[in-house]
SGNH/GDSL hydrolase family protein
Amino acid sequence: AGNTRRIADDPEAFKISNVEEACVMPDQRPSSCKKPNRYLFWDGIHPTAKAHRIIGKMVFKNYHSFMRDSEVLCHPGRKNRDAACRSVLWL
């Protein structure tokens, strides 16, 4: 939800123009959505393919940042290594 909120809070940064409405309404055919890349949500619940790609990139970036931070904190030569590693593992 956090990454979806980031997109909704700043849609222009992600080149999405509609974060309020779904691309397809319940009584419409899926083919009625002519420009899904402009929408955050496909059907009001599920993100569009574009939103999925953006969220995937965010998760990947955050994961690698987390792993880099944990490697620094858990380095064998680091003072207070055990406490630092435990704090990272609780995140």
